[in-house]
Specification:
The chain is α+β, with helices and mostly antiparallel strands. Strand 3, helix 3 and strand 4 form a beta-alpha-beta unit.
């Protein structure tokens, strides 16, 4: 199946499959498998990820039989997780709630001293961000290069930033503690929504369930909750 045909099939439910569509359009895919309407895509960004679009447990189980020795799985739904975990020993799992921005909703305009990020910012973001266990300076550098990636600088250094992940999700949003309550997170998020919409993509975010402040921000800006999603690695 060529990329054009693969994306066409996934666009039948674009909102649900936007993660894998974005990934396919940004990274080389080295394997595609299909069982009924269930599609598995494998490609490499920071790791060799397996994305699986499915609404059928039977098809999903059948497909898992082809995934011997696969380690990294992205955007799994709740019902998929125990089936994948049964295939090996869990190394780690990251779980989030996915929120999407409505197509027709206006994006607020907020004035702020927003500037582009540069690859020289990658090490600073890695050291001062929250996800060192799940990312790397190399990955951050690549996300800055692919863009969009923006931040706010004050007092001679980067104090707030946001960019997109390898699947197009708006993420890495972080404001240093001394610079919070200034509206920087709102301003950066709104600008990212505009930039994602400008290139014809669906703006969406993944937020950990316990990150209540980010969930409040997403809902305040108009993001709508979809479902829980999970990334996991088998040993």
């Amino acid at each position: 199946m060529n990329q054009k045909e693969l994306v066409r099939k996934l666009r039948r439910d674009e909102k649900k499959n936007i993660n894998v569509i974005n990934f396919i359009e940004s990274y080389p895919v080295d394997r595609v498998d299909q069982v009924g309407d269930t599609i598995r895509v494998r490609g490499k960004s920071d790791h060799e990820w397996n994305y699986i679009s499915s609404n059928s447990k039977d098809e999903f189980r059948s497909l898992l039989g082809e995934l011997i020795n696969e380690k990294y799985f992205a955007i799994l739904e709740d019902w998929m997780v125990p089936l994948v975990e049964a295939e090996g020993t869990l190394d780690w799992k990251l779980s989030c709630i996915k929120f999407s921005y409505p197509e027709a909703k206006e994006v607020p305009v907020i004035n702020a001293p927003i500037t582009p990020l540069s690859i020289e910012d990658a090490e600073w973001i890695f050291r001062h961000g929250k996800y060192a266990n799940f990312t790397s300076t190399l990955y951050i550098r690549e996300m800055i290069q692919k863009g969009p990636a923006i931040g706010i600088r004050q007092d001679g250094h980067l104090v707030a930033w946001v960019m997109t992940h390898d699947d197009g999700a708006i993420g890495f949003l972080h404001v240093l503690p001394d610079y919070r309550s200034r509206g920087y997170a709102v301003a950066l998020t709104c600008e990212m929504i505009r930039r994602v919409k400008h290139v014809g993509k669906i703006p969406f975010v993944h937020i950990e369930e316990e990150n209540t402040s980010s969930i409040r921000l997403a809902k305040k800006l108009g993001f709508q909750e979809e479902r829980k999603v999970h990334w996991l690695k088998l040993k």
